[in-house]
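Recall that a protein's primary structure is simply its ordered list of amino acids. Everything else, from secondary elements to tertiary packing, is in principle encoded there. The following example makes that idea concrete.
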Amino acid sequence: MYFISVNIRIKEWMDKNNLTTTKIFKDTGISKSNVSDWCKGSKLPSSKALIKLNETYNMPIGYILTGKELNMNQQVIIDIYNKLNEKNKLIALSDLKHIYEVQEITINNKNSY
């Protein structure tokens, strides 16, 4: 059942973006047989293939795998992050981790009273 859901979302995404197995192969190097297998539901795409599709076409990996759409704020964060150079991506990730840790400490302190 999981394969079927993913394959339907991949086919819908390809149709929506006017993509064929040939076009995906030409743009990404992902074999036409792999894409065809995903569309049939006989295989799942590898993480490497999903990342390549996201980088090439901005394919929503989370939606393809789970069927859940990102909310607007989540998508904005991802879009901005993807525009950063590698150094700034590391800084942004570090800052987000710090914000989360402060939030967790604050929540834990409130719950301990």
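DSSP finds seven helices and no strands in the chain. Residues 22 and 32 are 6 Å apart (CA to CA).
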